[in-house]
Amino acid sequence: MISFSFGLHVRDSLLQASASLRDNRLRTLLSVLAVSVGVAAVLVIGTVTISGRDYVFAELESYGLNTIWIYRNTVDQNPLAPMRRGSGITNDDLAEIEKSGCCPAVLRLAPLVYNWETWREVIRVGNMFDRVKVEGVDLDYFPINREDVVFGRIFRPDEIEQRKSVVIIGPKVQEKLFGAHSNPLGEAIRLGDTRLTIIGVLKEKRRGFLMKIGAESNDANDRIVIPYTLYQQLAGSKDIQTLVAEARDGDSVELGSKQLVSFLQRQHNNKYDYVEVNMLRWIDTAQELLRNISLVGLIAASLSLFVGGIGIMNIMSTSVVERTREIGIRKAVGARRRDILSQFLFEAMFISAIGGFFGQIFGFGMAYLLAHLLGIPLVPSLLTAVLSLLLACIVGMLSGYYPAHKAACLRPVEALRHE
Fold it and tell me: Are strands 223-227 and 67-72 parallel, antiparallel or unpaired?
């Protein structure tokens, strides 16, 4: 019986609220619009934050989250000091690190050989030419750098040891020289006078966002990899331009970097300075960037909801003034304070709920439009949608409480005298 009575009370309050709001269509529309903009802003910002974070971290994971890069610092602080030749890392260093056990925080280690003066080199297939990045690597490079092949295979140990003329090409190289849907396995490309047989095609790596913000300058899909021993033979050098390592876990990344640099400095009697780069710094930078974007967006969304709340408070306050005599009549015939309070709160909640509903539609549309324009998958989550709608209802309730309380506290005699 109590629940039936409560249901009738709620139904009557909703009917009265909707009738009152219809009588003030323009003010109601403006308040609904303000709430809609705020809810849409919250939904879009939440979507950009969550989906953007997932997108960026998916690109970062393509490097391996525990990856470390060590290379020589060629910028000498003393401009008068003679420039020492060499990369500061050699095959002997690599062998000594693996043999000595100097770096227990490091799980795997791989050489990365390339031409750091030109970066890109000319390759040829028949009468077609292309300039690509050429990298010399060994077997451990593939698991460290999260590399995989979609066609063919990676190198065998004997191909590394015997400097075999084999090559694995990136998907963009395949597309430009052979066609996107071709099978280039067994085909030959020429690097200078050296004929290289294609044994695999690398899996495509998605790093578009990192390239846009300048964190990655080379397209990982536009390169070829060959045995590092073959590259060194062609270059006539035993230099290794970069050591690529994988720490045992996330907590060992900084320690592993320090151990490798310390070993190389001892090995070369401090003749060279080294740069250490690891994924933790990239992750911190990405998180800081996303936090700043989220903060700015949430401030803008909060201002929008604040404006919407002021609009609701304004329309409810005006409604109280205009309906003072009605309130007096209702109280005179037995309406209780909570009846008046609930009616005006229902009106405020009604505005915020309608605004929240249209804000959801607008927010979803904006998210999908941004995804199309930016080329980033932005998928609004159910949690973000529910939270934005809940926030709109809270704003409506808080904004409507003061006018509702003011109406509920009116004395019947004073209300009936109001003109």
Answer: unpaired
